[in-house]
Specification:
Number of helices: 15
Number of strands: 15
Largest sheet: 7 strands, mixed
Oligomer: single chain
Radius of gyration: 22 Å
Bound molecules: iron/sulfur cluster
Distance between the termini: 45 Å
Strand order of the largest sheet: 1-2-15-11-12-13-14
């Protein structure tokens, strides 16, 4: 039903102004304002496909209840549109996954669901529309292989993020499957120290409570490890963490035995990588007064884009155009806030400097073009006042 929903999708999420900016070498000019758009931004292939499948599912099963397990992607605008289209969210108050049956259709999101949730919905006879992204499936494949071969998966990710929960659950498909989730370099350093020289086992387990598989024993389960990651983490950090573990395992077991104790595969999603690379290039090529990063506050890849920008220029992570309150006031999530800090918001005054201004603009992988286009239009209205 791809063609049947193409018009609906284009009307909902495309933007003529974004198309024009793209055609104009990713530059928009109006009076004293120049907007420089990153060369890769917005909807990635996985999100594009997931949203497409959701609209197709609604059409394909007109007389049946259609549910999402939760947010299909981390963008409030897209989720609201799906609600408007009649799709219900099992994460909403009053909805019960355990009461679904063979007449119900359930859409699984781009970041996947846990093995347990999948089994439960299948056993209830629901029709499943699986939009799990191929890049996420690639991570799962590696985690499953680690488990089959007796390696513990070390997952660089956010332990409460749906994708990381789903990825970790893949390790438990095999009896000896184990996992440990590390959020950042600091947590990785603690684990690496334990690998090198051991330590207080109980303190270790207390520190990583909730981030390890049931029955995890660091003395046993850190002897053979394989690295994986949530696909939307900072690429540079994921690679650095992989190297930290490689070094620790080399010191612990020696170079000759490294291959039997350590595995790593590149499981960084190419769309995340391209968006991060594009924003790094933009910051290097253009003198910018500020950066606007558009996307949900719970969107991991958007928060990471904001972190990259905040290290270079004043950065405002905004959820939608309504956050641009006026030419003087902006409501935003500080770009420098750690991604784990959640959706904290601040209001700043005097954010748009006087005189000629160069604004850098990018958007996370779950932000549709119409939202990016509205941000450009709003900026234009501020400088023409
Ligand atoms: S960010 Fe990457 S892994 Fe996630 S849906 Fe998009 S393409 Fe897939």
């Amino acid at each position: 039903m791809k063609e049947a929903v193409a018009g609906e999708l284009a009307a909902a999420y495309d933007s003529a102004i974004v198309d024009r900016v793209r055609a104009n070498d990713f530059r928009f000019e109006a009076g004293r304002l120049t907007v420089h758009l990153a060369r890769e931004f917005g909807f990635c292939y996985g999100v594009d496909r997931a949203v497409d499948y959701a609209y197709q599912a609604r059409r394909r099963f007109p007389g049946r209840r259609v549910f999402l397990t939760g947010e299909i992607i981390h963008n409030p605008h897209v989720n609201e549109r799906l609600r408007d289209a009649g799709i219900r969210f099992l994460s909403d108050a009053g909805e019960r996954a355990d009461l679904l049956g063979a007449d119900d259709v359930v859409i699984l999101p781009a970041f996947g669901v846990t093995v347990g949730d999948m089994a439960q919905l299948s056993s209830q006879g629901c029709t499943l529309v699986d939009t799990t992204c191929g890049s996420v499936l690639n991570v799962w494949k590696n985690v499953v292989r680690y488990a089959q071969e007796g390696f513990t998966s070390i997952i660089h990710g956010k332990v409460k993020h749906e994708e990381t929960r789903a990825t970790a659950s893949q390790a438990l498909k095999y009896p000896n499957g184990r996992y440990l989730v590390v959020l950042d370099r600091d947590e990785a350093a603690i684990v690496c120290s334990y690998i090198r020289s051991g330590g207080d086992r109980d303190a270790f387990l207390a520190r990583f409570a909730g981030s390890v598989s049931p029955g995890f024993d660091p003395d046993r389960d850190l002897a053979r490890i394989g690295c994986a990651n949530q696909t939307t983490m900072l690429m540079a950090e994921s690679l650095a963490i992989g190297e930290m573990f490689r070094d620790a395992m080399r010191e612990r077991h020696g170079e000759a035995a490294l291959a039997t104790h350590f595995r790593a595969f590149d499981t960084i999603c190419s769309a995340t990588q391209e968006r991060q690379d594009a924003v790094i290039a933009l910051l290097a090529e253009q003198p910018l007064d500020l950066m606007l990063v558009v996307g949900g506050y719970n969107s991991s890849n958007t928060c990471n884009l904001a972190c990259i920008c905040a290290a270079k220029v004043p950065t405002y992570h905004i959820a939608n155009p309504e956050c641009l309150l006026s030419a003087d006031e902006i409501r935003y999530r500080p770009g420098s806030a750690p991604c784990s800090a959640g959706g904290i918001q601040e209001v700043a005054r005097g954010w748009l400097p006087p005189g000629r201004i160069a604004v850098g603009l990018t958007a996370g992988a779950s932000t549709p073009n119409n939202i990016v286009g509205e941000v450009i239009r709003k900026l234009e209205s501020f400088v023409s006042l």
